[in-house]
Amino acid sequence: MVNGRILLVEDEDDLARLFEYALTRRGHRVRRAKDAAAGLKSFRQWKPDLILLDVVLPGMSGHELLELIRRESAVCVLMISGQRSPASVAQGLKLGANGSLLKPFSLDELCGRVALELARAPVASRGALKKPVVASRRRARPRPAPAG
To answer: How many Cβ atoms from other residues are within 10 Å of residue 65's Cβ?
Structure first.
């Protein structure tokens, strides 16, 4: 099992406590945020390996927060939604979510998906920021002419 640092952005306190309990019992470290602004701050400071992100949040939607996160990082993001509309799931995927969990779901499903995503992600990329691609300034050396 791969244990990780999980940022849980969920405004429903009872659900957040339940999710946190289940994940910490399986060895993960969990940090909670009640809204998108707190989630963005925790994301930048804590550098989580995985983010569980509710779609409906006060102030800014989970989809809007996902857009901001994707400008800075390729961290794994699983959307949590009570909206059963295929359009909401598709929007999350289009914005770069790695998957979604539709409420209601079991704690076993939650923990299983988290474990799967953490196992898929190479350790070097978990929690890593995107690095800009910089072209090399070195010039190619000329090849020696073939003998003969």
So the answer is: 26
Count of alpha carbons within 13 angstroms of residue 139, beta-carbon side = 3
Q: How far apart are CA 28 and CA 83, in angstroms?
A: 27
pTM as predicted = 0.82
Q: Name the token pair of 42.
A: 């925790």
Determine the Cα angle at 115 with ends 111 and 46, to 5°: 95
Whether residue 78 contacts residue 7, with contact meaning beta carbons closer than 8 Å, is answered with: no
Q: What is the per-residue pLDDT across 117-131, written as a single tens digit (0 to 9) for each?
A: 999 876 545 555 554
Per-residue pLDDT of 33-62, as tens digits, reads 999 999 999 999 999 999 999 999 999 999
Before 104, cis peptide (omega within 30)?
A: yes
Enumerate residues 6+ apart whose C-beta is below 8 A from 34: 10, 11, 13, 16, 58
